[in-house]
Design a protein that fits this description.
Blueprint (H helix, E strand, L loop, with lengths): L1 E8 L13 H10 L4 E7 L4 H10 L4 E10 L4 E6 L5 H14 L9 H8 L6 E7 L6 H6 L6 E4 L2 H9 L5 E4 L3 E2 L12 E3 L6 H8 L5 E2 L8 E5 L2 E4 L2 E6 L5 H11 L3 E4 L9 H23 L1 H10 L4 H20 L24 H15 L4 H7 L2 H40 L12 H21 L4 E7 L2 E8 L4 H8 L6 H4 L5 H8 L15 E7 L8 H15 L5 E5 L7 H15 L5 E4 L3 H4 L6 E10 L2 E9 L5 E4 L4 E3 H9 L3 H16 L3
Helix pairs in contact: 10-15, 12-14, 19-20
Length: about 675
Amino acid sequence: MKKIDLHIHTLSTISDADFCFDIDILDSYVRTRKIDVIAITNHNLFNLEQYKTISSRLAYITVLPGIEINIGENCGHILVISSSANIQDFSQRCLEVQQKITQQHDYLSLDDFKQIFADLHRYLIIPHYEKKPSVDKRILRDLHDVIYCGEVSSVKKFIYCQKDNDDLTPVLFSDFRACRGNVSFPFQQTFLDIDEISINSIKLCLKDKSKVSLTESEGHSMFFALPDLKLSTGLNVIIGGRSSGKTYTLDQIYETYENIKYIKQFSLLERDPNKAEEEFTSKLNIQQSFIAKDYLSEFSDVVEDVKDISLTDNERKIEKYISSLLKHASECERSDAFSQCSLYAESEFQINDLNKLKDLIQAMEELLDSTQYKSIIEKHISRDILISLYEDLIRTHIYENELVLKKRWINDLVSLIQSNLQSNTAATRIEDIDFYEIQINRAKIKKFEKIVNNLRMPRNIYRKELQGFILVAKTNTFNGAQELKNKCGKQVAFSDAFKSYNNPYEYLQKLKDINIEETTYYKYFMDVEFKILNQYGYPVSGGERAEFNLLQEINDALQYDLLLVDEPESSFDNLFLKERVNALLKSISQELPIVVVTHSSTVGASIKPDFMIYTKREITKLGIKYKRYSGVPSNRYLMSNDGETMLNIEATLDSLEAGEKAYKDRSEKYETLRSFEG
């Protein structure tokens, strides 16, 4: 097994915060983390002389030359790593990159990238995959035959990509800046099951996900959270006596990583019921707003489509057309050379709307880029057919767009000629009118009113169960102008508009006269009520609020890369912890690593963790020292980093049961109470 880190920065560039490279720090990092292979990958440049200096200093490992490039309009990052045997040629090509990217938001197009590096098979190419700024999927699709892996930003994303057969092989690197004074060394490295170190051997290994892991011996079921602390990628429990370093360990992990959810001890305890209720209501309102926005998203597009339609203006256009037609007919004797010109009464070309075609092209791109549902899509339609259809749609768009440009040019020219002819004749010109557009607008208004009336029918639009709690949202009509004002949150009057509430189109026109944002009109047609109910279907009480908040906080951790929970038993009873919290933690641990600190056997033992850590405080001549013992729960012994062992049962009973004697005393009492049942 070889430990690799192919993403290291040694030069400050326009894409970095300023730092001063220190080769001693880099040397110390490589030795401390016992790394076998590194790559120097500075942003959009490669310094050959510095690379030679680093290679000479770190001659005991393999140092590969590389570069991190901005590629595509979204400036996604892609690593290009070369063999040291091609160093001169690689350096020249990197110089071309440096000349093209001189500002922070400059980038190479895909064509530029291919032209500069020519034979891409010579390099190891690693795009930012589940890591920002990620490379555009269309570029990934184009380069798929030379990409063997993708860089991810966390253990959670590494595991996700490992499990999904359609995802690239994940690699986790440090993105380390070896700068002066930086002695906090990262743990993001990847192990490859290889003996020989070369670009080709690395590529070959990356083709097989089973040969890529986060640890040397435990594969990707474990990872290093701290220098002396290995954790499971699933559920971990930390136990130990008071002040033994449990919370200290959580704090260390929290300070080491980004994007962590940390639920601290007592943080959800309600000290002020009134304030707690206000905060709970505020959270409900936010949740309600999200649900309503999601449910009404398509309706907001409908409102946007009809808000500028004026039936009054359309009627005026018809009246003007009829009037000009009658007048033109009565003035036939006035016709002259100007009014008899063919272009005088010529109608404009109808301009096609290409938005639907653009939507189709975008939909095709989503189908082609989808990795999660790739197998389902290709089960019904082959990728070659999808690509062929995609290309046909693009060709059609190019043709249609060219036609639109021509029609607009001709319309402008005809309009100019008609204006000149009109100024030279006394004859009345028949007004232009688009009867098709007028009829479409009438149909849109009828459809709009039908949609609104349908939406206003009471219905449940959202229901979710969360460990005994029920989250429900249902639609209602507004019952007065005051409710609309409360919805708006501004000092504006809705009384006049509400008089037309039952006439959707007229109501929309009156909303336009009120000082509210146009993009929010859709919110005032119907209300969404959101409630959280207990298992019996009633609104939650104060104590239940705290329970729900904990479950919601835990569930919210799915948006993060790691979850830390400090002594949940401090604020909640054992039955709630066992029946609800444990089940949720166990479920979420399938998606991301979780670390729970506990003194409670309800959490510590009943939750059945994947890995456990026992902390112990020792007083030495040098001061307080926190020691950690760890292992899987079924092991007889837990082991520290320096090889010391202790009995698992001893650590568990001391931490969760106040020692073996207390455990036996309680067991005897329970047995005595049970005997009364007979």
